[in-house]
Amino acid sequence: MSEEAETIIDWAAFSGARSELGAEFVRILGYFREDGAKSVSAIEGAMRALDAVAMVLPAHTLKGEASQFGAEALADLAENIETIARQSVEWRQAPDEALPDVVKLRGLFNDTMSAFERETNPLVERRRFGRKVEAANQRFGQI
Hints:
- α3 packs antiparallel against α6.
- By secondary structure, this protein is mainly alpha-helical.
- The chain is elongated.
- It contains six helices and two strands; from the N terminus they run ααααααββ.
- The longest helix is centred in the first third of the chain and has 24 residues, at 25-48.
- The protein has a two-stranded antiparallel ribbon.
């Protein structure tokens, strides 16, 4: 696991969600991948249109879903975008202040999803606590 993945994901929360969801985990993570991508696109579109109202709901949704899977950096960024958008609505201003965060959003979402993919892929060799741990099916001739 990369150092970057360690800083953007709360792996204890991720494991907790995995345990709670059980067999449904992979399916629900897939929904997050799809819904998250839609939220990111909606936020980017709202930013291009300078439409703070259209930015609030997808940022709020992304924040909540990311938190459920331990994607804390993504949740924090979405929360900041949501806060700026809500303030912009209240003050009847364009959400210009959100631009730097919106620019970072897609890259962070992609990095987060890549980290999740590495963690959930059964063919990826795992490393834990500084020691190499091989999955049972990683050696030739073993299943």
